[in-house]
Amino acid sequence: MDALELTLLYLLAAVLAVTACRGLKLPAILGYLVAGVLMEPHTLGLAYGQDAESIRHLAEYGVVFLMFVIGLEFNLPKLRAMRQHVFGLGFAQVGLTVLLVTVGGAALNALVPHIWPLGWQASLALGGAMAMSSTAIVVKMMADRLELDSAYGQRIMGVLLFQDLAVVWLLVLVPALGAEPEKLFTALLFAAVKATALITLLLWGGQRVMRWWLTLVARVKSEELFVLNLLLMALGLAWLTEQAGLSLALGAFICGVLISETEFKVQVEAEIRPFHDVLLGLFFITIGMMLDWRQVFVQWHLVLLLLALPVLFKLLLVTGLARGMGASGGVALRTGLYLAQAGEFGFVLLSIARRDALVPPELFTPVLAAMVLSMLATPFIILASNRIVMRLVSSEWLQQSLQMTSIAQSTINTRAHVLICGYGRSGQAMARLLEREGIPYVALDLDPDRVRQARAAGHTVAFGDAGKLQALVAAGLGRASAVAITYLETHAVMKALHTIRTHAPTLPVLVRTQTDRDLDALRAAGATEVVPESLEGSLMLASHALVLMGVPVRRVIRVVQDQREARYGLLRGFFHGADDVSEEDLAHERLATFIIPARLAGLRLSELLDESGGGLRAVSLRRRGGDAAATDDDPKIGAGDTVVLSGNAEALARAELALAA
């Protein structure tokens, strides 16, 4: 199979697998792993030759960009805010996992070398791999389930943050373990000294140089140059650390850290993301391809053992550590369940151990298979976590019952109230206005600190998830006169809307959204009114300008009311600039100006819209002589007239092609 055919096969497998995962609302990383497993040479009976090895080398740069992004997200204030979970629970989890696996492996090697042939060096490498959990899978699923701000969510994020820090040193340590026994101590010491010296030098002197250089490049105002410069810096520092005898990934991490403290961080994240996603996906495909399923079936008992023991070990360790650090039984068990699987960096460390002959081939395949299976099982473990906790932790039933009882007790005498879902800035502002007018309200929020402070201040707020029927019923959904959903995340709003509409189909529901992108979708999902903050802000700004220009206040109020009744029709869509190129910007309704060609003269405006491919609406029409013309009565258009059309980027692109043809 030649290089082109192999590349096409990679792309086909990736597209199909990732599409299936997205349809099932699973992380894309699982799709890449499955694609790799399906492309394993013995699965399809294909011979890839040297091209597969070349692609595998290319895929290693996915790890480089992964470390670059982790460095980019490195945030000292965030680390300080979560230091108890990061340097407490996170340090204990990683440190004890590596220590216990290393000591246990060395003991087994001494007692039963024919069963466990790995020395302490290989055991340490496996311990480092086992200590990692999947950030990509866990964080995505917690975000979808609105669990990031929960007690266990904060602990999980703290552990994952420390794992990201620990992997930097493991990437230095593990390659040095392959040195000859008599030179091992010297190799480890030399690697640590080199890494410390290089990191110190780059961080100490690199910050000013990085900011100066990025500013210089940005002044050119060339997007191509900016992207090329990012690739040069990330790969250049990766090459520098490799030349120093360290890993490529370490240099990329340092590059990300240097950029993270500059004002270019957000732009860099947007520009580097496509390279990161594609190459990292390629890396996980190659990981899946390493699995020899014939060996897996032959050694199935060993695979199951290597799957069950590490998962149970991490589950018990993390649960015990979290419990010992003050977490309740339910919180501790959920933390353990979410972190029990293998992680992305586990594959990286395992690949290094295989390359340096620390792990023999006959053991590599079952270990790899066990890690892949544990990651494939993770979404299902997380989905079942609530049932598992309820079954195993007797106090969890009591706690959740008490929580629902507490909500119900605080709202039992409340009638005809407004139920506020989300008690952030918008929710609190609404509550103050309702309270001033004497209208009762009940608020639900998932931030325990916010709930505690608000309740202490006398606000009617309770800890609860508005996406769950039990919490809504306890908060008086059946007695409420209206519901206001203030969440920022559209998927969270949709979840709450679905639950509310299923059990209260006629109850008025007011929804807040940041932009008008999801306005129609939210109304279709059951929202009575949708308030887009960007359009309301524009409307308020324009109304103040009209008053300042001497327009009577009564007329200004009428203009504002007309726009709201028309669902902001005049305000939706705007002329986009060169900087509006993100995926989110492309999905927005936007405006574009077209000059009518002679061949279309005489058409009605509605006929022009049909000619343009559909999905558009006419905003304004200006005659060739400069006079404005009304669009409501479907006027005829003439050659040289200027029409402003509104629609998304795809519809406007079709119109441009149709009108230019």
Structure description:
The protein has helices at residues 3-23, 28-38, 41-44, 50-72, 76-81, 83-111, 120-131, 135-144, 151-176, 184-219, 223-243, 248-260, 265-289, 293-298, 300-324, 329-339, 344-355, 361-383, 385-392, 394-411, 425-436, 448-456, 469-474, 490-503, 519-524, 533-548, 553-565, 583-587, 605-611, 649-660, and strands spanning 418-421, 441-445, 461-463, 482-485, 509-513, 529-532, 590-595, 617-622, 628-629, 642-647. With 661 residues, the protein is of the alpha/beta class. The chain has three domains: 56-391, Na+/H+ antiporter like fold; 398-527, Rossmann fold; 583-660, Alpha-Beta Plaits, CATH 3.30.70. The strands form two sheets. It has a six-stranded parallel beta sheet, sandwiched between helices. The protein has a four-stranded antiparallel beta sheet with strand order 7-10-8-9. Helix 24 links the parallel strand 4 and strand 5. It starts with a helix and ends with a helix.
Tally of discrete structural domains: 3
**Lateral arrangement of strands in the main beta sheet:** 3-2-1-4-5-6
Helix content: 55-70%
CATH C-level class of the largest domain: Mainly Alpha
Low-confidence stretches: 578-586
Mean of all residue-level pLDDT scores: 79
The total of beta strands comes to: 10
User: Helical segment tally?
Assistant: 30
CATH architecture of the largest domain: Up-down Bundle
In this structure, how is the largest beta sheet organized? 6 strands, parallel
End-to-end C-alpha gap: 42 Å
What fold name stands as the CATH topology of the largest domain? Na+/H+ antiporter like fold
Subcellular location: Membrane
Pfam families: Na_H_Exchanger, TrkA_N
GO cellular component, one term: plasma membrane
GO molecular function: antiporter activity; monoatomic cation transmembrane transporter activity
